[in-house]
Amino acid sequence: MEKKVDFTSKDISSRMVTRITEYLTILYEVSKYEKKINSLDLAIKMDSTAAQVRKDLSTFGEFGVRGRGYDVAKLIEILEHILGIDKKNKLILVGYGKMGSMLVSNSVVLGKGFEIVEVFDKDKEKIGQKTEGLDIIVKGSDEMDEYIRKYNINQAILAVNKEEAQAVAKQLVKSGIKGILNLTAFKIELPREIAVISVDISAKLQELNFWRRHIDINKKGE
Amino acid sequence: MEKKVDFTSKDISSRMVTRITEYLTILYEVSKYEKKINSLDLAIKMDSTAAQVRKDLSTFGEFGVRGRGYDVAKLIEILEHILGIDKKNKLILVGYGKMGSMLVSNSVVLGKGFEIVEVFDKDKEKIGQKTEGLDIIVKGSDEMDEYIRKYNINQAILAVNKEEAQAVAKQLVKSGIKGILNLTAFKIELPREIAVISVDISAKLQELNFWRRHIDINKKGE
DNA sequence: TAGATTGTTAATCGATTAACAATC
DNA sequence: TAGATTGTTAATCGATTAACAATC
Fold it and tell me: Which of B83, B109, B112 sits opposite A210 (nearest CB)?
């Protein structure tokens, strides 16, 4: 990467970060067929505009070549670097229920750059079990704090029952966790300096249901 | 519900629909402790503003009482009605892999108002299997079209490999499906009149990773 | 009636888009 | 050089917020 990726002083909107992940998804596909892409073609695949694409990408540096477009492989490298997935990021998984065990046995859903290094559950039946897919033995929740500190873990996937979500999240933060992927349908409240991203399939089904029924409505934005 | 819920002529932004699902998540929790809530308290729980809350809710009718606030139970009823989850919505599930079987055996993730009525897979090993959790026998993908038409299904969860996602989605639309919850990390392209909502855990992990590393950056919006 | 809080309009803010000079 | 397409500025558009009259 010759050009520097720099955004330390910039304001970044959460919308743009979401779009960066979408560019990457598309570029992985495009890379199978093309070496180059220009802002318009990428915009069409994004259901967006060429101006938006150029603006987004230029936030982090000058990665295109005037008259030529963008090099797909280089752009992938750059976006992966921006998102910090050009190296392995360690995660712990808390909650080894249906959702948790699906993630462990199906590591493809985590995508590039992430690795579950330990699994915790409070259920005595599950503690000591060897996980399917990874060579990990499920540990008890009481060992969580020690593990996080010892191995300097800073990110966790929260896949417990929603009733426990808030309490467990708080506990994780106390142990030093800085980012939580919340897979429960509970809105957890944590200090501003902790990153929380939620994935709620039931909420997404609700959105889908709304738009399926009202697709005729003037859908603004996006 | 005395007041009419009406939004046939209104422009609705996708952002607002997302917020509606978030209000609902919060109200389910609030309903355990309170009968009433005002726009400011709801806003605080949303990390939003009272004006935003009132504006959002007033889009669909007048549901509050001046000087009093909103009735929690009534608001839940209204939002459920807006999202169309005050009745059961039938879904078929396509793809009975790790993700698909997790959804079937763990129906709580679907939330209120949704029901998987049939499961399809192309894998001969899986066809004929009785699903864990539901009393459903996995059908072959070749029976999909007939089933959709016969039972008038209009919504599907797509949980196949991302390599097949586009082709299967197209096929579903051809059979009459109007809404797809896309659980693959592939951006499917379909006609404008088909509702598609995607849930991509790997993309969300990327966002989380970004914000965890750059939480100091001036995060705008949201 | 006084106090509280909604619903809504107008003002502000931020994000997207159009346009074009820069340059490969 | 001519053509293509970026990076960026200024204009537009849409979404959020402030303010307040309405009203319980």
Answer: B83
The span from the CA of A206 to the CA of B103, in Å, is: 16
Q: Cβ(B203)–Cβ(A187) under 8 Å? A: no
The residue whose CA lies nearest the C1' of nucleotide D6 is: A66
Burial B168-194 (b: 16+ CB within 10 A, else e): bbebbbebebbbbbbbbbbbbebeeeb
Q: What is the pLDDT of residue B192?
A: 93
CA of A64 to C1' of D8 (A): 14
| Cβ-defined contact of B214 to A12 (cutoff 8 Å) | yes
Nearest-CA distance from B141 to chain A in Å? 22
| Residue B191 CA, nucleotide D3 C1', distance (Å) | 34
Q: Which CATH architecture has domain A89-194?
A: 3-Layer(aba) Sandwich (3.40)
Domain ranges of chain A: 14-82, 89-194
**The model's pTM:** 0.94
Q: Stated in angstroms, how far is B48 CA from C15 C1'?
A: 18
Select the CATH number that applies to the domain covering A14-82 from these four: 3.40.190.10, 1.10.150.120, 1.10.10.10, 3.30.450.20: 1.10.10.10
H helix or E strand, kind and range, residue B121: strand B114-121
Under the banding of pLDDT at 50, 70 and 90, the label for residue A2 is very low
Give the confidence band of A1 by pLDDT, cuts at 50, 70, 90. very low
pLDDT digits (tens, 9 = 90+) for B25-37: 999 999 999 999 9
- The residue with greater pLDDT, B163 or A7, is B163
Handedness of CA A210, A211, A216, A221 (dihedral sign): positive
What's the average model confidence in pLDDT over A4-12? 65
Tell which of A114, A164, A210, A214 to mutate to test the B interface (max B CBs under 10 Å). A210
Burial class of A174 by CB neighbour count within 10 A (0 to 12, 13 to 18, 19+): exposed
Which of B10, B20, B209 is opposite residue A83, by nearest beta carbon?
B209
Residues written for chain A = 222
Which positions of chain D lie under 7 Å from any protein Cβ? Answer: 3-9, 14-19, 22-24
CB contact under 8 A, A22 and B208: no
Contact B15 A221 (CB under 8 A): yes
For the record, the structure tokens of A41 come out as 């073609």
- The closest alpha carbon to A143, from A91, A94, A88, A195, belongs to A94
